[in-house]
Write a structure and sequence with these properties.
The chain is an all-alpha fold. 67% of the residues lie in helices and 0% in strands. The protein contains 6 helices and no strands. The termini are far apart.
């Protein structure tokens, strides 16, 4: 049977481990779990293991011990089921070459020369953008420029063809 001093010593160690755990959890919250040094995660795991070991020992001796709010890790919620992809969504990389070829052919056929010039300019910008992406990597500025180009192509396609450029890239045809 443990002495009152043994019980007091374990209760003090339990308080120390809980204080350590609280400090480590605060560090993790401030830094974010992705940016916290590995020592923080290991310290949290070790502190919880010691808390569990000490509370089990105290309970085994018949001492009443309340569980602390952070003594155990929260259960990880199950991942959300994948959302269904809407019918109008385009997965993967769009075939912009196909969309451009279809749009250019249609604009030539209907004689929309001003819009054709705009599409050819947007096509040249897109080619340069893709080349720069391959050579120098993707940047937020290039993403923004890509969005501008696609906006322009969509506006022309919708106005002239009644169908979006995205749909042309996905294989829609024009009569």
């Amino acid at each position: 049977m443990p002495s009152p001093q043994d019980i007091k010593n374990l209760q003090e160690r339990l308080a120390i481990h809980r204080a350590t755990l609280s400090t480590l959890l605060s560090q993790q919250a401030i830094l974010g779990s992705a940016n916290a040094p590995p020592a923080v995660a290991y310290g949290i795991r070790d502190a919880r293991a010691e808390i569990r070991r000490i509370t089990d020992a105290l309970r085994g001796w018949g001492v009443s011990v309340e569980d602390g709010p952070d003594d155990a890790a929260l259960p990880v919620p199950p991942p959300e089921p994948p959302r269904p992809v809407p019918a109008h969504s385009y997965q993967g990389r769009m075939d912009t070459a196909k969309g451009l070829a279809t749009l250019i052919t249609y604009l030539e056929r209907i004689g929309a020369s001003d819009d054709l010039k705009d599409v050819l300019t947007l096509e040249a910008r897109l080619i340069k953008l893709r080349r720069d992406d391959r050579l120098f990597g993707n940047t937020p500025q290039r993403n923004s420029e890509f969005a501008e180009i696609m906006y322009g192509l969509n506006a022309i396609a919708l106005e002239q063809c009644g169908i979006s450029f995205n749909e042309l890239c996905a294989g829609a045809t024009l009569d």
